[in-house]
Amino acid sequence: MKLFKLSDILKVQNLSLKAIENPIGDYYVVKFNSPANLSWTPGEHGIFTLIGKKFKGRKWRIFSIANTPGDNEIVIVTRTGKDISNYKNSLINMQVGDIIKMNGPFGNFKLLDNSSPLVIFAGGVGISPIMAMVKSLSSEFNAPVHLIYSSDRYYLFEDELNELNIDNINIYKTCTTKENMLKIAELAQMYGSEAYYLSSGSKMAVNKIEKQLKFFGIDNDRILKDSFRGIDHVIEPLYNNFI
User: Based on the domain organization, do 176 and 152 belong to the same domain?
Assistant: First the structure.
């Protein structure tokens, strides 16, 4: 399966900063005004390049878009960590109206049909593309949706998830690997390869989920994953040569 189309990442948008929110600790929600003609499929990413900033290191990062096109904005989420990078320090200190360049949206981490049950794992800020996906589910989506949301301290978008008007969604908040594995095992045995299994989070967490699913015989084409830093090594040579 292709990760993306080159033509998609060559699309460029200049976005103006709308707001930066810091709900707790090192969590930041960054909102940009969305051009009227811009659309994307929930689950896709953008390459966000800081303009006019001078610091050592890469001036770009890949972020999943955490909202749907109908919101008239583009929302990304990040955690700065204890040792904040030069990029993230510049990002969270942008001023309203400042411009950032976005290439995309692009990617293949997205819902593939409207009838299969969904088993979804989101780890930490891996909730970003998942939030967009579940918000996009229409009232006509009747299959069961199971969201395992794992975090060590704070559940981003918790209020928005609780307000979703989706009767068939079940949300399980977890905080340990053991809880995640037990719930994945339970749901894999319940649905087998009838369901799609989506996971978004750290590379380690996503790989553990994939290994667990394969142990229970889930078909490879029913497992979709989106891990942090998972495609940077693919994007970097393209960025340096084409963008």
Answer: yes
